[in-house]
Structures are given as C-alpha cells and as structure tokens.
Amino acid sequence: MRTRFLFPHKWRIAGYCCFAALLAFAIVLKLLHPEGYAAVDLHPIVSGHLIQPGIYKGVTEMRFHNDVHVLLVVFGLVFIGFSKEKIEDEQISQLRLDSLQWAIYFNYALFIICCLFIYEIHFIPVLIFNIISPLVFFIIQFRWKIYLLNRQLKNE
Amino acid sequence: MKTRFLFPHKWRIVGIFLVVVAIGLVVYNVLKSGGIDATTDLIGGFLGQPISQKIAVVLNDIEYSSAIIGLLLIGFSKEKIEDEQIAQMRLDSLQWSVYVNYGILILCVILINGLAFFSVMAYNLLSQLLFFIIRFRWKLYQLNRLAKNEETGPLSPILK
Q: What is the value of ipTM here, to two decimals?
C-alpha cells in the first residue's frame, strides 16, 4: 500500500531552486522595470482599443514573464510536495495522502466562503490564488504532521 | 489504515442533487442570457444594486457553492463497502488528479494569455474534483469488472 508516482527525494532541492530562481527573476525585473507592467498592459484592453505597435513589445514581454512566474511556482510546489521523504514508509505515505485530502477540503471550504463574501472584480485575486492554494495548504499540513510525528518519537 | 474524514454513503445522493441544481442554474442563465451584469456601477456595494442584479449575484453564489459541495460529496462519500483497497484507490486517484490538473494548467499557462486566461482559472476551480471523480469511478469500474470476470470467467463458454 505504497504511494506511487512520487519524485525522488533529491528533487525537493530542485523545488527550492525554482523558488530561488523566482526570487532572482523578480529582483531583476524590478531593476529593469521599476514602474511595473500593469499600466502598460491593462489600459489598451480595458479601454477596448487595439494594442498600439509601440506597446506591443512590452505586452509580449510581460506575457512571457507571467508564464515563467507561474511555471516556476507550480513546478516548485509540486516538487516540494511530491518528492519522496528520506525514509518513505507506510505511515508517511498515509500522512501524505491524508494531508492531500485535508488540503482539498480546506481549500474548497475557504473558496466557498470567498465565493459568498467577495464578488465582481475583487474575485479575480481569489481565482489567481486558488491556482496554487491547494498545494500550499497540502505542503503546510504535511510538514506540520511530520513535525508532530518526529516530536512524538523524540518524546518516546 | 483507513481514510478518515469521509461522508456517509447516503450523502452521495445529496451531492448528485446539488450538482443537478448547479447544472440547472447554468442552463437557466444561458437561456436567459443573464448572469451578472459586469458593467453596473459597483460603488454602492451589494445593497445599492438593483434587485435584478442582486438576484443574479445570489444565483451565481448558489451555482458555485452547490457545484463545489455537490462534487465534494460525490467524490468523498463512503462506498457501500469501504475496504482498504478502495481507500487506497481513492487516495491514488486524488494524487493522480492533482498531477493531471497541474499538468493541464501548465499547458494552459504556456498556450493561453491575456483575458482568455480568466476562463482557464474559472474551470480550474472544478476541474480537479472532476478529474478525481472520473478517475476514481473508472478504477472502481475496472475493479468490479475484474471481480465479475473472476467469478464467471471459468464457466463462460468461450473459455471452456
């Protein structure tokens, strides 16, 4: 009764590297474009005008950067959450899957609350965070459970 | 080594009912070509809206909530006979659905840009539960077929 489809243990370092790369990328972007991109991109779309040739380069660049950001975050979280522990026994795999189920429950409960209290344009950030929140909740719960287990073992 | 936090078996009927309600609301919105009017002024907040807009907002909330709660109940209610194999299959399917969901999401991130990505995020809400339910049911179906073949297999005329 093992969990299948897990990454090797060392890939967790790759996950942390993804976040380091993300941080470096963000710093470089901030240095190159201190004023940010939002003013460039959203205005022509919201006002319904065609994108002017001058702005177009900035928009393409921003889309590429967005892709890189999301990919790094998702790959990083998946690697951290789903790489094997050093000693992957039955109890750990059970903890992992329990945490995953708990994270799904928690995420949807939170989402329903957001759904009831937030609407219209404010709902968009909820949608954006909802992409990565299940993985974040899963990782936090799993690490917490492992910490509790280790403390219990030490006490014994 | 059982799966904890599961709903009782009978709640699956409630889940199916809620999903039907959600689908009904979607059909109603499409036929009425209604839904939330995004162009109305929002400065007044919810209470300042005209009554039709209030109804649309509440209907939208009910639509989302009932779809999610319904899918959760369908996916996470106990089977009639909940043994270790089924619990393992459920959690395997859950993990598989996380992988598939994020795989598709990554493809969408690369291929879809701009405002069209909002619909990806909207579908992303429900897709994970849908993949999980489909995969879990499929595995159960395979298991049942295997069990049936083992029972009747040796007696079937072809094998004789």
A: 0.74
